[in-house]
């Protein structure tokens, strides 16, 4: 199950996370948001050890929605090391979303594998 966050838990769970975090800004009235939930749950099952997937109800977290300029729902933002790596706004279809997320997560995973090797390379 995708972890649901609020403004209090956002800093610890996203900005201070040691792994990449995919944040799904959604709203309960957003039909398209509900359509991508199965895709995100599938990614959570497939990538759970590599990336954390969380959901944020934009209607209940107006400050966060404003901070990250959420104008379209759903909006997916990938954070790594507290910084925004990639942003996906709207819905392009399940297949397109699946391809984009898989490519993005593979790139992020390779980046983390390389950075973990850096100390060994430099010593």
UniProtKB/TrEMBL annotation:
It holds the Pfam family Thioredoxin. GO terms for biological process: cell redox homeostasis. GO terms for molecular function: protein-disulfide reductase activity. InterPro entries: Thioredoxin, Thioredoxin-like_sf, Thioredoxin_domain. Residues 1-106 form the Thioredoxin domain. It comes from the Bacteria. GO terms for cellular component: cytosol. The keyword Lipid metabolism does not apply. Coiled coil: none annotated. Keywords: Disulfide bond, Electron transport, Redox-active center, Transport. Gene3D superfamilies: Glutaredoxin (3.40.30.10). Disulfide bonds join 30-33. PANTHER family: GEO12009P1. Belongs to the thioredoxin family. This is Thioredoxin.
